[in-house]
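Students often ask what a 'structure token' actually looks like in practice. Rather than answer in the abstract, let us consider Gamma-glutamyltranspeptidase 1, a protein of 751 residues. Its sequence is given first.
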Amino acid sequence: MTVWLLAIGIGVGFGLPELLEQKTKPLDQNETVRSGARNGNVNTGGLTINISHENQSEINREIVSVRDRIENTTELLKFQSTTLDPVDVERTRLEKELERKLKRKNDVDRTYLEDTTEAGLNTTAESRAQVTTKAVSYTSTDPTSVKVTTQLRLNETKIVDKVTDQPALEDIYEPEINSTTVPIVDANIPPKRKKNVRLVTVGAVAADHATCSDIGRDILDGGGSAVDAAIATLLCNGIMQPHSMGIGGGCFMVIYDQHRQAVDVINGREIAPEAAALDKYTNKSPLFGPLSIAVPGEVKAYWAAHQKYGKIPWKDLFAPSIKMARDGAPLSASAARGLRFIRNRLAKNLNTTLNQSYPELCEIYCDENGDILKENSTIYRRAFAETLQGLADEGPDYLYSGEGARKLIKDIKKFNGIITMDDLKNYKLKDTRAISYQYGNITMHTLGAPSGGPVMGLILKIMEGFNFTADDLSSLDKKTAMFHKMIESFKFVYADRLKLADPLFVNLEDLMNKMVSPEYADFLRQQIDTSSTHNTTYYTNLTSGNWDSYGTTHISIIGPDGDAVAVTSTINYYFGSLLYSPSTGIILNNEMADFSFPDKTVLDQLKSQTSNYVAPGKTPLSSMCPAIFVDNNGEAVLVMGSSGGARITTVNSQVAARILWLDQSVKEAIQTLRFHHQLFPNHIIFEEKFPKDVMNLLHTQYGHKYTERTTYMAVVQGIARDLTTREIQAFSDERKHGKASFLQRNVTVVN
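Now compare that with the structural description of the same chain:
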């Protein structure tokens, strides 16, 4: 709320700088100033006070308040306008900035309108907003007086509610200089509130590479939406973490619109090409090479999200990544580790080298001797920069029906792949069910099948019934008992996971309704033996395999408007199919390896299941489960997801449980060591350096077998809102050298 008095005499023809040089001069009656907003006038004792506010009801309310305050107060009419000399008053930042502004030429149009009843400032359009704040303000200091203050201001000081950065209804303008105090009758003025300027985090981006988090943050800072930031961050990740994701793969996306309190989900996962059939894979493994490539959907997902939620032009989101691809970017530590892993696996299992078997990929990531490049080596991807430029200029059509598509299909044919131009042209995003789980006052939103959302959601629903608290971490016995219950929850839900598939090919309605049912979670919890584990036949019959998955990436975003995005993206295995398209610079996925095949196992040691058999146009089952948790006020309080194959669901569940029930910050929850169990093989997998005493007790007291990993177990990116202070916390998993980036702004907080 703004109330202005302007001390300018009738019939005076001088500009604002000259006004500052005038000596003390009486305040004439019936004076007002134009504000450019709705106006209301109070006329008391011949003095007109102009009140400016966009809301007419607020104007009416303030008119009554002001009239009550100055009724019968004759001293106010004797108020003197005093010269403001910045040298003689307190040298605050505001006044120094004002002095600098006033020295500029043409700051205002030095013309005043004269009228028999009022005088107002006539300014140029460019300076009008400034001039309306260069006036006299009033406020109060105690319940029995009003302090009227001559004050020249550069900008309004807004009072905001906590960290929302939204103006309060009753904005107060602080008196600072040249004031006179007069008594009033029945002032009934509320006490002045304490104000503090604080640097507050109003948004954040958590990606698994610092450069990409920063790019997303800059998009938010430039007025972009959370979806804009997500797209720009993902494009960057495709360059900085090329072993994990890229436009040659696919993604799941969850979007929360706080204004509408609505959730949208996008399934941009890969699909099997039309020529895919079981008989093609009878004697051939789809782990790598041309038969492992599925039709990518990543760019189509970006486009669909931007069409609905984008604020910044599509083309602008590509600019940072185009520059990095063209000018070179350092090879990240995790990408270098991925190269070493591939080199070692090829040598051990196939007795070959990357250069011998996949020379196109080696052309980018090997030196002149054919040895893989080391961390921080500069990687140039100029063909990829051209592809990104084509997408920026033409949208997804460039890659699905245009010149980019023709180049890509030409390269795939050279590899003896089975994807055709028709496969690209006919690719469409699949409608996927959004599902929700209620945990007390918190609701989790994620995707249904073929994502891992139902698995994560059901695990957490079972855990909720155990009423875990921070006290469960207070001793070895309590901690181990809690971990046993978590592990048993994993095993029961992974038995149900075998039945999931692409719902467009398998009727999953009854299964999905069961997996989101609180009653079913209660039933499974009742089957858990809290004193012992059991053989796999206690849950279901499973078989095993040998390979594991390491690819995938996740980003989490909360924007300053409260909107949130969680995206998990993948090309499946490290560097996908290991096939690199020289014409487009795209690293192609090996998503076909996620299908089930007779007498074969998929990458994550999961049982071959008929519901997940390959078929043309089908999407393979996935563990990816981006999730957004919303409280009963409609605010996103946790945005999270992870990479790590079959371990995604169990790791997500552990991190979420620690934040929701164990009173841990998002940083603590993500940094804590983890474990995984997927029912078969029937043993726990512990992250390296997991406490030995817990591992031994789970074995000796509860009967669990276990193994230890020598590498990290999944990578989590999370953003959480403190449920007490409402401040935003974000953390990117250091296991993959990630780093979150924060959008911060100065706000005035009223206490």
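One point worth highlighting: Residues 133 and 527 are 69 Å apart (CA to CA). Ask yourself how you might have guessed this from the sequence alone, and why that guess would often be unreliable.
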